[in-house]
Amino acid sequence: ESSDLPTTADTIVFKFNVVYVQPDSTAISRAKYVYTVNKSDESATTPKLNAVWLNEAFPESIPRYQTPSEALAAIATASHQNLPFYLKHKIENGIVSESYVEIVITPEMAGENPGMVAGTYTLRGEKTYDFETSTSVVGEGYISPYFESNKEAIKTAFGYSTNPSRCTDSLSLFGCEISNPRFLISSSTDGSVGVTRGSYEGCAVKGEGIAACHWWG
Question: Is the pTM of this model over 0.90?
């Protein structure tokens, strides 16, 4: 009603406070993806095994990269090889909430292996086993909710629809492999995902929640 409106001009003042925090070079945003190529080391204690651990604080001593290109350059420098994989992590409030293996199928690799599809493929790992107590944290017969999506990504990468013989499909593991060069990608129902090139080089997120890479030297 017009009668409810004020009859004189009033000045209304609103006040609010905004808190600004100056970030530094080690700051981690509330939710952020970073990339690593940390090499596993069984003798390392800080951080454990030189690994990134799911559901634990991100180790400050492990270098993090902001883009896949930076990670690929870092693993090439460290290993003296052009290794087409790295690790990806989601950090929330300093804690590692998600870890992935990302694999790059190059056009050259796809060209040498008909049916393969060039691109970057992301496999998500999951913690289902407690490293400290050597006990399972899931029930018997558990199947990771990421297993099927990981499986589909691998199928696409290897051209499974036209070359199913490249792949092994069991109740607990799906993996595909080519021999020239030897290149294997796999995903397990226990939450483990990994890639191996040659006989040893690779990256993995294991069911214990461990994310790390490995190479000779």
Answer: no
How far is CA 181 from its chain centroid? 23
| Nearest C-alpha neighbor of 210 from the set 153, 126, 135, 140 | 126
> 106 is written with which tokens?
């190059």
Give the C-alpha separation, 26 to 125, whole Å.
25
Bridge partners of 186, per DSSP, are 175, 194
Rounded to whole angstroms, the Cα distance separating 106 from 58 reads: 30
| Pairing label, strands 201-205, 210-214 | antiparallel
d(CA 170, CA 147): 12
The answer to whether 105 and 117 have CB atoms below 8 angstroms apart is yes
DSSP code for 166? G
Instruction: In whole angstroms, give the CA distance from residue 36 to residue 204.
Output: 12
For CA atoms 53, 58, 62, 63, the dihedral sign is positive
Q: Is the dihedral of CA 89, 107, 116, 40 positive or negative?
A: negative
The partner residues of 176 in beta bridges, in order of sequence, read: 167, 185
Q: Do 150 and 195 touch, CB atoms closer than 8 A?
A: no
- Amino acid 199: pLDDT: 84
Do 26 and 20 contact (CB within 8 A), yes or no? no
Q: What is the mean pLDDT of residues 106-124?
A: 95
pLDDT at 19: 47
| Distance from C-alpha of 99 to C-alpha of 87, rounded to nearest angstrom | 7
* Residues in the chain, overall count: 217
Measured in Å, how far apart are the chain's first and last C-alpha atoms? 82
